[in-house]
Amino acid sequence: MTSSTSHAAPIDFTPNPGSAPLARLVLAQAGMELRVMLRNGEQLLLTMVIPVLLLVGFSVTSLLDLGEGAAVDFLAPGIIALAVMSTAFTGQAIGTGFERRYGVLKRLGATPLSRLGLLGAKTLAVLAVQVLQVAVISGVALALGWDPRGGVLGFASAAALLVLATAAFSSLALLLAGTLRAEATLAAANLVYVVLLGLGGVVFPVDRYPAVVRPVVEALPITALASGLRAVLTEGALLPLAPVLVLLVWAAAGAVLASRFFRWE
Questions:
Q1: 4 within domain boundaries
Q2: So what's the pLDDT on residue 7?
Q3: DSSP annotation of 145
Q4: Is 250 inside a domain boundary?
Q5: How many structural domains compose the chain?
Q6: Closest-CA residue to 175 (of 246, 242, 122)
Q7: pTM of the complete model
Q8: 222: containing domain
Q9: Which of helix, strand or coil describes residue 237?
């Protein structure tokens, strides 16, 4: 009688060092960024409560002369644009600036995550928060009588504008936070927020500005976003080319500059 012995394949314990794929790194970092943002009450106040208060305050009063039609029809797209800027630029610049000051970014710099990977992760986290922002602001605006137009195509065009604007604001936020000290970033980000609230076509029509400054105002990313959203949601127009080009230029320039000059410490 013969017996056969089966031999198991040898197990290879040889180390195989290497970083995870870039997509996995970005998604993991985006998840952490999202959790940090949702735990920051001050940032949520800036990004959610202030835009809603502005929308309600200017819609139910006659403080602003916005011409014919319901005030909320003009205000809603501009307030959405303001909320996008407050999350993607103001809040992100301040948060990243203090992360850099406290050494958080220095530790991230020792990981395989690149500057563009960090930009991508922060942009994904911001987009997740903006889904909540747009839902809340749109709900309030609808309750105030907002009548958006454009149908499915209009909402798809609006989503494309929001993504482009988020990329532009996120790259500019990282450029600011990665080059200035945390205190300077805090001051500069809040100053930009206040200035663009007044000049960016959020609550005042751009055509009421002096002709000499109008081209500069129209070249701002928040003006491009606000005017683009009004075109597709209020007027029912197709995706406007000029705002798209403005946002693309800001996004590309911001990404290149941030990847070049961003410092981890």
A1: no
A2: 57
A3: T
A4: yes
A5: 1
A6: 122
A7: 0.83
A8: 22-261
A9: coil
